[in-house]
């Protein structure tokens, strides 16, 4: 492919609003173009990368027994209303109407649609298990699109769905998909972690996330050097609380003017912050008709993990109470809230570390006052104890190793949905005994377009992109230093033909540009190997540069095919997992 015939609008400067390295370099290298906020065009080079990723995905999904299909992006709203996600998905859902005023959405995911198809198409367990998938654009009205294509309003996604007659069938499909995902990311050449994750709006209880460590990652991963890794929302640590043995002292109310935080209350009362009870009031929406106030108690400066609280309550939505809510239910404003004297209309949850404390201090539900020497059962009740806190670095994980934190980019997510959607939408089959049973479902997703950002974040440098050969738009970049030099051009074209005949994809820079411009663009574009045809062309010698390492070697022209083969093989990600 001649470079003069392909659209690669390289730039010297990154966009002013670009924060992420991947965003800066993919724009500068002429891979992507912003059409509007959160909406991107994938220019020829980026689209070639996407096609390479898609091919890897198809290969591994086929191995796992999944079959490709295509679902519409324009979906009737009725199915989503029936599942409850029309409301619970929130403002991220693109909603629209047709000319007859019928309601539709642009699909952010397709659980409802595929479940309805299977409901109407499969009636017997003998037709199961089935695993289907698609590669399709999804739409989410992100409030703050950022980091280029890492978080946009339109993006390509692999979404797959498994349907089984029983739990064993789901477990088998889930494990096959987990293996396929590992194979995909291994072949692409990503550094990633498989972590425990929360299912969120997807439904179901069990899920795993595949996350690439990166500074611009929007998720916090808690991991160890052992076997443990989890999203901060899901992470747990070993409970090390020791029961305090002091005798309960008399409950007293003390003025704490201006003390609105735990540290301020501790200073005002002359106590350690670990002896202060933080009281956070939430409103839990249980269903369309019932919303319950929930007071969550934490030790000192521990942070409430709202996902854990939401899961414990099994509520549809959890939100921090407003000042008006706090005054209505507890008679005070945030900063002075506490559990003493709270009525039964407020549900009280407490983290496990609260259980071991004696003579605690807490808000008195009166602005500017706190209680000291508050004790469980004598002065206040707790309806449910549990792990409701965020873990902290250095705590001991379930595998016995210290927890570390890193930022991560979500690459993929697999869920055991169970019968969440099939029960709601009536997707049943006759089992072996002739009885109707709900199909048992799993769903599996990979953010295809965001994989480009993840790879770029891990491999790019200050000069530009550096693609692994498995997904690079071309294998080799051939650059004649002087396009006006007939000898150099003939050698460059000859090398290009030789490599293409050997099955390699080659980009020939035939532009009449200065050598410095060509080299700078080559670094930006980031192909695995660069072959420079320069002053030694008359001697039959060219220079080969490895983009990833910067290493250069000089070789004879007749050695080019063998050398390129050896170097690309060395640069190919290990695929032991894929060969399992």
Automatic annotation (TrEMBL):
Location within or outside the cell: Cytoplasm
Cross-referenced PROSITE patterns: AA_TRNA_LIGASE_II
GO biological process: prolyl-tRNA aminoacylation
Keywords: Aminoacyl-tRNA synthetase, ATP-binding, Cytoplasm, Ligase, Nucleotide-binding, Protein biosynthesis
Pfam families the record matches: HGTP_anticodon (PF03129), tRNA-synt_2b (PF00587), tRNA_edit (PF04073)
Domain free text: Consists of three domains: the N-terminal catalytic domain, the editing domain and the C-terminal anticodon-binding domain.
Designated name of the protein: Proline--tRNA ligase
């Amino acid at each position: 492919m001649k470079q003069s015939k392909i659209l690669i609008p390289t730039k010297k400067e990154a966009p002013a609003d670009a924060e992420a390295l991947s965003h800066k370099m993919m724009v500068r290298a002429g891979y992507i173009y912003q059409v509007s906020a959160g909406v991107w065009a994938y220019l020829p080079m980026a689209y070639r990368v996407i096609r390479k990723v898609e091919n890897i995905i198809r290969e591994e999904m086929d191995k796992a027994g999944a079959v490709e299909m295509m679902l519409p992006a324009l979906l009737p709203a009725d199915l989503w209303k029936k599942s409850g996600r029309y409301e619970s998905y929130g403002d991220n859902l693109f909603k629209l109407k047709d000319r007859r005023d019928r309601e539709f959405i642009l699909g952010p995911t397709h659980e409802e649609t595929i479940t309805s198809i299977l409901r109407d198409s499969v009636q017997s367990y003998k037709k199961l298990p089935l695993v289907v998938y698609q590669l399709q654009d999804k739409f989410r009205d992100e409030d703050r699109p950022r980091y280029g294509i890492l978080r946009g309003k339109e993006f390509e996604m692999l979404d797959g769905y498994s349907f089984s007659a029983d739990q064993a069938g789901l477990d088998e499909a889930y494990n096959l998909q987990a293996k396929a995902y590992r194979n995909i990311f291994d072949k692409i050449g990503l550094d990633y972690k498989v972590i425990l994750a929360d299912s969120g709006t997807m439904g179901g209880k069990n899920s795993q996330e595949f996350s690439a460590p990166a500074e611009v990652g929007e998720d916090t991963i808690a991991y160890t050097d052992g076997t443990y890794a989890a999203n901060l929302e899901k992470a747990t640590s070993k409970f090390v609380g020791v029961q305090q043995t002091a005798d309960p002292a008399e409950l007293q109310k003390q003025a704490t003017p201006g003390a609105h935080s735990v540290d301020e209350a501790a200073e005002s009362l002359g106590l350690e912050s670990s002896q202060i009870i933080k009281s956070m009031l939430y409103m839990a929406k249980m269903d369309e008709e019932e919303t319950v106030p929930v007071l969550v108690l934490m030790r000192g400066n521990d942070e409430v993990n709202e996902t854990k609280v939401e899961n414990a309550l099994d509520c549809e939505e959890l939100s921090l109470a407003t000042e008006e809510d706090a005054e209505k239910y507890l008679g005070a404003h945030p900063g002075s809230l506490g559990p003493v004297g709270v009525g039964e209309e407020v549900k009280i949850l407490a983290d496990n570390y609260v259980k071991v404390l004696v003579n605690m201090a807490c808000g008195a539900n009166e602005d500017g006052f706190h209680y000291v020497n508050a004790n469980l059962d004598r002065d206040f009740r707790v309806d449910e104890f549990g792990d409701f806190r965020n873990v902290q670095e250095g705590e001991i994980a379930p595998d016995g190793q210290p927890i570390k934190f890193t930022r991560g980019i979500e690459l993929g997510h697999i869920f055991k949905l169970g019968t969440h959607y099939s029960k709601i939408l009536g997707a049943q089959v006759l089992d072996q005994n002739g009885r109707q049973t709900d199909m048992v479902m799993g769903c599996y997703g990979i953010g295809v377009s965001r994989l480009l950002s993840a790879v770029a974040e891990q491999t790019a440098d200050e000069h530009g992109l550096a693609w692994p050969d498995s997904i690079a738009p071309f294998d080799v970049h051939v650059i004649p230093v002087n396009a006006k030099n007939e000898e150099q051009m003939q050698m460059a074209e000859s090398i290009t033909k030789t490599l293409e005949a050997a099955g390699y994809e080659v980009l020939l820079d035939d532009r009449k540009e200065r050598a410095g411009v060509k080299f700078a663009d080559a670094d930006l574009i980031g192909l695995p190997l660069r072959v420079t045809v320069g002053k030694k062309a008359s001697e039959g010698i060219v220079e080969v540069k490895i983009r990833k390492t910067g290493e250069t070697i000089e070789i004879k022209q007749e050695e080019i095919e063998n050398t390129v083969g050896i170097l690309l093989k060395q640069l190919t990600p290990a695929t032991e997992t894929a060969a399992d």
